[in-house]
Every structure is written in C-alpha cells, then in structure tokens.
TrEMBL record:
Gene3D superfamilies: Immunoglobulins (2.60.40.10). Coiled coil: none annotated. This is Interleukin-22 receptor subunit alpha-2. The keyword Lipoprotein does not apply. PROSITE patterns: FN3. It is found in: Secreted. Keywords: Disulfide bond, Receptor, Repeat, Secreted, Signal. Residues 12-107 form the Fibronectin type-III domain. Belongs to the type II cytokine receptor family.
Length: 214
C-alpha cells in the first residue's frame, strides 16, 4: 500500500497538453504512473498568462475523464493560456501538473477545406469551403477560419489510372471554385485539398477524397 506522499506522486497527472483544431480546444493529460491512478478523479483550472488567480473549470471538476473542453475559455485567440490538472484518490490530492503555454491563434491546427466535386465532359469543377471555427456571429452562423487568417487552398488531383498515391498540385490560391480542364474521359480522378496558412507556414491534413469518372 502506498503511503500518502507516495500516492500523491503516483497519481499526479502526466503530459498535460492543449490540443486544438480550428479553435476547438481541449486539455488532455495522462493518468499518474501507479496502477491505482486508473480510479483517480481530476480537477482542471486555467488562466491567461500573467493573471494571478486560476479559474476552476466547473464541468471538469472531479471528473474521471482525461480530457477537458476549454474552447469557450480560450476564445480570446491572441492570448496565451495555461491549464493545470490535479488528481484525487482515496482522500489524497496530487500536486498540480502544468501545461506549456498555449496561444490559440499561433498553435491551433487548421482543418482541411470541405471539397465538393462536379464533373462535366472533360473538366472537373471543384468547390471549396473553409473550415469553421466554433465561434458564432450574432445571428448564429459559425464564423469561418478565413476570418482569422489569410488562407490559401491547395488542390491536388489523383489520376487513379496512373497511381493512387501520386497527387499532383493543380491549384494554389484563394478561389473557392476551381475548374480543372483537359482531362481524359472514362478515367477515374480523385480530388484532395489542403488549407495552407502562409503567415504560420502551416498546412492542414488532406481533405477526404472526392472521386469522379468523366
């Protein structure tokens, strides 16, 4: 049986980090190293860098889960934030485990655009939609990520006849509708796209494939 001091250390949360996609931001951690730590409950606090006092996150107070949604609490996207987590088990509380500093605007990952493909005889029309943030306008519609960054779209074509892994960049720019011409009838083509953020020199993952046969 672990003594109190040992139990404190054994259940202390590990690897406290922010994960963020399109400003949907969660704090993640791993349980302490002891086997008993599986039954621990967790308490989450957050603050803006430079503030003295930590704020409790009420929804994540005494929870069994290892993730806490802080999207709403980190909505001032230029501010740097910290999160911290402590665990409790059998009446013993661990010390707090601190995250690294997190600035949403700089560190959120941008998602790929939503791609729609329409084909005519020898061409493909590609329609692109920027990813949405979780934040809403007064009328209730979600604000897209183009509000926060100058985004470029990178559109790639895959000729399935040649090689399913070979992606050819056919467009980079801001247009939301792109026409790819002079394609071969009867051939299956797939389109994937990425969002690129020049100011951060960062690309999204590829969108899901949209395929069509001309």
């Amino acid at each position: 049986v672990l003594e109190n001091q040992d139990l404190q250390d054994a259940i202390k949360p590990q690897k406290v980090e922010f994960h963020s996609l399109n400003f949907n931001t969660t704090l993640h951690w791993q349980p302490g190293w002891a086997r008993e730590a599986r039954d621990a409950l967790y308490f989450v606090q957050y603050k803006v860098y430079g503030q003295r006092t930590w704020q409790n996150k009420d929804d994540c107070w005494g929870i069994p889960s290892h993730v806490c949604d802080l999207t709403h609490e980190t909505s001032d996207i230029q501010e740097p934030y910290y999160g911290r987590v402590r665990a409790t088990l059998a009446g013993v509380y661990s010390n707090w485990s601190l995250s690294c500093r997190f600035t949403p605007w700089r560190e959120t990952m941008i998602g790929p655009p939503v791609v729609t493909v329409v084909h005519s005889n020898k061409s493909i029309i590609v329609k692109l939609q920027a990813p949405h943030s979780p934040y809403k306008r007064k009328r209730g519609s979600k604000i897209t990520m183009t509000n926060y960054y100058d985004l470029l779209y990178q559109v790639f074509i895959i000729n399935n006849l040649l090689d399913e892994q070979h992606r050819v960049l056919v467009y980079e720019g801001k247009d939301k509708v792109i026409k790819i011409q002079d394609l071969r009838p009867g051939v299956s083509y797939c389109i994937v796209a990425k969002t690129y953020v020049p100011v951060l020199d960062r690309s999204s993952a590829y969108s899901s494939r949209q395929c069509t046969v001309l």
